[in-house]
Amino acid sequence: FICIYPAYLNNKKTIAEGRRIPMSKAVENPTATEIQDVCSAVGLNVFLEKNKMYSREWNRDVQYRGRVRVQLKQEDGSLCLVQFPS
Q: Where are the bilayer-spanning segments (predicted)?
């Protein structure tokens, strides 16, 4: 499983604040629930942890809480979905 925090995808964040993707692909203030919905829609096995917080997130509001755990590989090391290798 990998962990995805909303800050990783937030175009309002800088790289120093935790954004991990280019601004052109980031979205405005994503929530963990939205990330879970998108991952589930493409067929990934996901688990939402609502009370987890990203360590660099200074805002402790409920909308910024949560992380999504996504399974990319099976226990034998094979990919769950070929189109998502990492």
A: none
Residues paired with residue 4 on neighbouring β-strands, in sequence order: 68
pLDDT tens profile 14-31: 999 889 999 999 999 999
Contacts of 60 (CB under 8 A, 6+ apart): 53
Q: Which helix (H) or strand (E) holds 32?
A: helix 32-41
Give the CATH number of domain 2-71; options: 3.40.640.10, 3.40.50.300, 2.60.120.560, 3.30.56.30. 3.30.56.30
| Strand 67-71 with 45-49, pairing | antiparallel
